[in-house]
Amino acid sequence: MSDNKRSQAITQGASRAPNRAMLRAVGFGDGDFNKPIVGVANGYSTITPCNKGLNDLSLRAESALRKAGAMPQMFGTITVSDGISMGTEGMKYSLVSREVIADSIETCIQAESMDGVIAIGGCDKNMPGAMIAIARMNVPAIFVYGGTIKPGHYKGQDLTIVSAFEAVGQYSARKIDDAELLQVERHACPGAGSCGGMFTANTMSSAFEAMGMSLPYSSTMSAEDNEKLVSAGQSAEVLVNAIKKQILPRDVITRKSIENAIAVIMAVGGSTNAVLHFLAIAHAAEVPLCIDDFEIIRAKIPVLCDLKPSGRYVTADLHQAGGIPQVMKMLLVHGLLHGECMTISGQTIAEILKDIPDSPRTDQNIIRQWSNPMYAQGHLAILKGNLSTEGCVAKISGIKNPKITGPARVFESEETCMQAILARKIQPGDVVVIRYEGPKGGPGMREMLSPTSALIGEGLGDSVGLITDGRFSGGTYGMVVGHVAPEAYVGGNIALVQEGDSITIDAEQRLLQLNISDVELEKRRTVWKAPQPRYHRGVLAKYAQLVSSASVGAITD
Hints:
By secondary structure, this protein is α/β, with parallel strands linked by helices.
């Protein structure tokens, strides 16, 4: 080494002495400073059962990282419980938390110049939030899912959290009494893990596995099973290898891998929220994707799995039947999956699926045979029309009537609608409109599980339509249409609907139509005035100023 280079090296080394001094205080020794530093983004909390077990997974990952030759640095990130806040003002913070989570992970990793990150999450928003951050930063990363909850049991039936929401509607309709409602509540959630059907958390975990950012089979494991701990350790080992080989998230998160994820979402009957979240993830990864792409993929993909909320089984059953690899192999052999896509392990999708049978086992009914799908086409339809010129999302699985035309019952908030449902003021044939609940108008785009479940519980799920510029829970099903864009707050036509107007929801024609003339529509527009913001300070006010339309993912950057 020349005297000049030696001098530069000494100077650089000296300048890092304060950094090393602080790292020694958290456990670094002399031999550790040349090892990759890996962030462990730990979503643990006791706020929700979804995240209750994440600390154990984080500790297992931390140990595995050390053994693999890396230096872990653990940090926390927030979560909120959609299920607990559902139907309250607190639900407005749910989608907002996706952005807070993404920003917090990006902030920690980038501020500390970490070489990689293992993100460990188990609830609806810390999953897409983590993936948005991973796609933005583009440092080696892997996602570890906290795992699904096991089903509750009561009177020979498998229960999920949606069972409790539907029981409220049954109670309102006097189909069950106080004692029965209490028993459903007591048995619905037996332990740790995310909501047990193919709701939003299990949908996103399945999609991340399909996209190649999580390990095979990891997306459907139960939170309380030992294999989940083992998988967390294996994920850490895979991440260290990705750091050594510099396999980056944007090598994995591509247009084709996102198409794979969407195909699997359709095949398993996943949540409407996946549309919103994958638009945001694609934006973060700078991958072109628009809402119409979901409709194109939907038309090609059959629904292969009989899973709640509209089916019979829970995600733990899907795991035992072969999990996401079995679903992916069926799509692959029928030319509906991009097998050449790279995964974070360095293997391609085709290599990972090489030994998976082409068809599911015949001793189970959860994954249907290719010749006998639940539905011939995917269940998440993109509807357009004069009520949603930018598009909206309808979940059309399990509905008896794919078309309804009826009088509008207009509500300016979820709470006023819920009061009307519980007072039994909604009649068969009505089309319920809940507006000013969009990304800006809510703000925060609340989920409408309470009113939709109450309608199901009262026996109105097949005879009443519901449209909103808000969202739905992954547990929602029935003739419901969400993410209506443009939203009411920015002057979308949903703001111009009047009580008694005729509205058509047509899933087959993919149409959402207000049946009045263009002249009348424009007349109403001239007198419409934008409402004042509901919040003027704090996180909700900031979010309302920044957030985009739902049709592009409700993004904030």
